[in-house]
Specification:
membrane, T2SS_GspF_dom, Type II secretion system protein GspF domain-containing protein
Length: about 250
């Protein structure tokens, strides 16, 4: 990877800002502390659970990274449709990439998306005389997304061997579009289940809080002796259920 490409965005990592990291620690630490008080009625237990907030920024970073990569894939699909239309109209490959940037901006004039920036970089590199194959390959290496990598490989091979670029781009955009449509259908299908899982996960905490407020004498055995062990087991089971549900809902296509 060249020095110039090292200065560009690497889509395999995501760096939280200082503000984002602090917010994650403060919000999660407060939440974990409240959970500790709710389950144990002890400040020390709340402080111990609150220490778990140091792992939350890493989890939130992965969530934001996945969102960014998903959005990049979706925008890449739209860019391929624009590129396919430009090539079918008789434009050159270079002009096709240039016009696809304008088409993306027309879809959302106020947006400054990752893909618009990347296609602008492609256009700038071509204006400075760099072959489009090198620029596209660099973008593919930094993105590490299967659809973009496959398109770059097919595009570079077709460009070097003199294949029908219009047909290649058209078919590639159709295949990637179908794949993304399937992903979106799956996301819609599991969206309700995701919401239901969140409600089910929150229900024990709400129920325990309700009992503490309305029947505190009934809950007293839970906060002494074997009650602490029962609370620990119950909390561990809830965490395992959350991780299990999160894994089930993580469907890859």
């Amino acid at each position: 990877m060249t020095q110039s490409s090292q200065m560009l965005t690497d889509y395999t990592v995501y760096m939280l800002t200082t503000r984002q990291r602090l917010m994650c620690i403060i919000v999660s630490g407060s939440l974990f502390f409240c959970v500790g008080l709710l389950f144990y009625h002890h400040l020390l237990a709340g402080a111990v659970l609150a220490a778990g907030c140091i792992w939350v920024p890493g989890f939130w970073r992965n969530v934001l990274l996945e969102r960014r990569r998903t959005t990049l894939s979706l925008h890449f699909k739209q860019a391929l449709y624009a590129l396919s239309s430009a090539l079918a109209a008789g434009k050159s490959v270079e002009n096709g990439f240039k016009e696809s940037v304008e088409d993306l901006r027309m879809l959302n004039p106020e947006a400054d998306t990752d893909l618009i920036r990347e296609f602008t970089i492609l256009r700038t590199r071509m204006e400075y005389g760099q072959p489009i194959e090198e620029a596209l390959l660099d973008f593919s290496d930094r993105a590490q997304i299967e659809d973009i990598t496959n398109f770059a490989d097919v595009f570079i091979t077709c460009k070097r061997t003199g294949g029908d670029l219009v047909e290649v781009v058209r078919r590639t955009s159709a295949v990637i579009g179908e794949k993304l449509d399937i992903q979106q259908d799956i996301m819609v299908a599991v969206a309700q289940k995701r919401f239901e899982s969140k409600v089910m996960f929150a229900a024990p905490f709400i129920f325990l809080l309700f009992l503490n407020l309305t029947a505190s004498h009934f809950m007293e055995p839970l906060y002494s002796g074997m009650g602490y062990l029962i609370s620990t087991v119950a909390l561990a089971v809830l965490v395992c259920c959350y991780l299990w549900i999160h894994r089930i809902m993580d469907i890859k296509v």
